[in-house]
Amino acid sequence: MARGAVYGAGAAACSTVTALVLPDRDARGELLEAVAFLGLVAGAVSLLTGLFFWACCSGEVLRWRDLFRTTGPSEVIAVLAPCLVRVGVLLLVPVPVAAVLGRFAG
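User: That's the sequence. What structure does it adopt?
Assistant: Structure tokens below.
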């Protein structure tokens, strides 16, 4: 989760820089609202799916390097669980930043 949060902080910085570069005030607000909404929806779905897969694996998670050595569907889910959790956190971290910037830009 920490790695996903660090990547998400980088994504928040990128969306902040992008919002400051756009010259049109309306375009800035719309971009930030879209980032906040899509990040919230996609991040929540990815995080909840990843946590569900993690619970189904009984805590046994595998790394991406183990993907080609899997022998069954349950092991593939054990590879996907941490990935989905990390992506979910990555998408959820920029949401508050984009929402706050959208208030000021709009």
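The chain has a mean pLDDT of 81.
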